[in-house]
Amino acid sequence: MANQLSPPFGTPIIAHQYCAPGPHPVDLIITKERSRADNFTVTDTNGNIVFTVKSNLVSIVKPRKHSFLFDSHGNPIVHLRRSIQNNVWKAFRGQSEESRDLIFTRHNSSLFQLRLKFDVFLANNVTDVCDFKIKSSWSGRSWDVYIGDSNILVAQINTKLGTMFSREKYMVSVFPNIDHAFIVALILTLQL
């Protein structure tokens, strides 16, 4: 899937062990589980579980959507929370909701868009310039993740629709030295 060289850096956003060195990208498959909630399993190309995702159902009692990204051992590594009013997602370390544990915030690039675009701001960013940008294809069936407003591509996501007997899958290619746990967390904010 990947067709561009990765940038020469490897700053971990979630954790260092999720920044795989080059020269090849990390290819992952995100499979939607058959359940009422938005639960997913993330595997490598050999079928090994890398992450699992568990989500709550939004209700009047719980007006925010919460999703949790777990490592392959079942340890919570990211808590994603969406505000229903403005579609802003916030990611926190572990199961926390404390501002000191904030990792990133993701929101729409603008109100009116022909193609969906989202800006991602890391917790330590105090500027108006985003750290990452997510852009959909015209069809909305694939996504690219870029560093800020640059043309430096760091990940690609392609949808593979399921059939009546198979589940929907998302094929993900994360370029070398990019935190693939961070990329998976970003993908979960796309409301798959």
Walk me through the structure.
The protein is mainly beta and about 190 residues long. It has one domain: Porin. About 5% of the residues lie in helices and about 40% in strands. It is built from one helix and twelve strands. It has one helix spanning about 180-190; strands spanning about 25-30, 40-45, 50-55, 65-70, 75-80, 90-95, 100-110, 115-120, 130-135, 140-145, 155-160, 170-175. Strands 1-2-3-4-5-6-7-8-9-10-11-12 form a twelve-stranded antiparallel barrel. The radius of gyration is 16 Å and the shape is globular. The two termini are about 20 Å apart. Mean pLDDT is about 85; it is low at about 1-10.
Give structural attributes:
192 residues; mainly beta; Porin; 1 helix; 12 strands
Helix proportion range: under 10%
Low-confidence runs of at least 5 consecutive residues: 1-8
Assigned CATH superfamily? LURP1-related
Q: Order the strands across the largest sheet as they lie in space.
A: 1-2-3-4-5-6-7-8-9-10-11-12
Report the span from N to C terminus. 20 Å
Q: Which CATH first-tier class would you pick? A: Mainly Beta
Strand content: 35-45%
Number of strands: 12
**SSE series:** EEEEEEEEEEEEH
Q: Helix segment count? A: 1
Main beta-sheet annotation: 12 strands, antiparallel, barrel
Q: What's the CATH topology name? A: Porin
Pfam families: LOR (PF04525)
InterPro entries: LOR, LOR_sf, Tubby-like_C
Protein name: Tubby C-terminal domain-containing protein
Family: Belongs to the LOR family.
